[in-house]
Structures are given as structure tokens and as C-alpha cells.
Amino acid sequence: MRSLSEPCILNITKGMGRITVAGVTRGYSAGTIVFIPAGVMHGFEVGPHVLGSALFLGRDCTVQLPPQPQHIRLRDVVAQQEMNMMLEMVARELDAGTASGQRAAVHYVGLLSVWLERQAEAAGITAQRPDAAHRLVARFTDVMERNFRLGAGVAEIAAELGVTPTHLTRCCRAASGRSAIELLQDRRLFEARQMLSDTKLPVGQISAALGFTSAAYFTRAFQNQTGISPSTFRKAG
């Protein structure tokens, strides 16, 4: 589980796996397009046979984009070719390294946004309204993303959402196949890996920054998920 400070579009061209966006897990295969707005928690499996591309749209993207995540399965080969062509045009203009190329890339992204909107409409996605359980899980991941560094547990987040921890966990399992505490712990430990790789902060400070009650508990949790200690992970990087 992680989030980005910029929106992105994932274009899967080969292979299969699962992706969790805003607490909802779905399968993907070749011809799947996933749009993830900035700040939305997500995570996905990428096996050895999965191929695709990711377009990161920048923190200051001025193009009008969908406000919610989108998961679109392109069953039409022509639509898949159109998507690949637009992504290639964006990449070509950016690779030019010129001001005119940058402007052209922005316009292509605008066309891509309209194209995605039309594909969603054709698939009936815009007419679908998530049920109460999925709406709760989306709210949970939103609160988690804002507060996971503060040490709040599932009980505290559930109280903020006005539900019991049992009900929240039941909804998380229904939406993603994972419990609320598993999603929360995964998010915190992904951030821990980033901090171990990108900073020189001592392990104790990273533990405290992510809301763990002690460095020893953080080390046990990290080792249970990765199979190695935080210090070993940092040295290996």
C-alpha cells in the first residue's frame, strides 16, 4: 500500500494480477486501464509475466481528470491500440525535451482524459454507485492515508468513521480480502521501506515517525513482513 502526490495512469498490456485501489481489490489483465488520483492509497501485484506502462501526470497537472479512481477493461482491440498510441505520443513529445513538446504532451494528456471518460461511460462505470461497504472502506483508506504516521490504530480510525472495528474489518475483507489492520500495517511498512532507502534517519526515529509504540515492535513487524530486519534491509539497498 502506498500513495503518490501526483495522479497516474496504469496501462496493462500483458499478464494478470490484482490491484487494490482505495481499499477495493480487483483483478487485472491485458487491456486494463487503471486511473489513480493523487493521494489515493493503492498497491498491486506485478508478476514476472506482467508488462505495461505507467504515466505519471505531475503534481501540478492542469488537465481536468476524473475525481475518482477508475478501473476499465478494454475488450475492444481497437480501443487498446488507441490507448497505446496516445501514450506513445505523450512519451515522444516529452522525449523531445522542448517547450513545444511539453505543451503538446499536455494537450495529448487532455485528449487522453476525455478518451478515458468516454470509455468509462461506455462501460457504464459512471452510472455505478458503490455500496455502503465499499464507501466505508474508501473513507477508511482516506483517513488512514492522512493519519497513518500518527500511531492511530484500527479502533481509533473506526471510531472516527462512526463504526465498530469489527464492522470495519468485515467490510475491508469483503472489499479487498484483507483485514483493516493488514491494510494499515502494510501502508506503514511500505513507508518504512521508503524511509530506510531514501534517508539516513536511525531506525528508532523512523519507528517513532510512523507511530510505532517502540523500535522493537517496529523491527518485529518489519521482519515479519520482509523476512529481514530494518538494518539489514538498509544495508542491502
Largest sheet: 4 strands, antiparallel
Low-confidence stretches: none
Helix percent band: 40-55%
Could you spell the SSE succession in H and E letters?
EEEEEEEHHHHHHHHH
Structural class: alpha+beta
CATH topological fold name of the largest domain: Jelly Rolls
Q: Can you characterise this structure?
A:
- The protein has 9 helices and 7 strands, in the order E-E-E-E-E-E-E-H-H-H-H-H-H-H-H-H.
- It is an alpha+beta fold and 237 residues long.
- The strands form 2 sheets. A 4-stranded antiparallel β-sheet has the order 6-1-4-7, covered by helices on one side. Strands 3-2-5 form a 3-stranded antiparallel β-sheet.
- The longest helix is centred in the middle third of the chain and has 24 residues.
- It is globular and about 55 Å long.
- The model has no long low-confidence stretch (mean pLDDT 91).
Which tags fit this structure?
237 residues, alpha+beta, Jelly Rolls, Arc Repressor Mutant, subunit A, 2 domains, four-stranded antiparallel β-sheet, three-stranded antiparallel β-sheet, 53% helix
Which helices and strands occur, and which strands form pairs?
Layout: E1 8-14, E2 17-21, E3 24-28, E4 32-36, E5 42-44, E6 51-56, E7 70-73, H1 77-96, H2 99-122, H3 132-147, H4 154-161, H5 165-176, H6 180-198, H7 203-209, H8 215-226, H9 230-236
Antiparallel strand pairs: 1-4, 1-6, 2-3, 2-5, 4-7
Write a concise synopsis of the structure shown:
The chain is α+β, with helices and mostly antiparallel strands and 237 residues long.
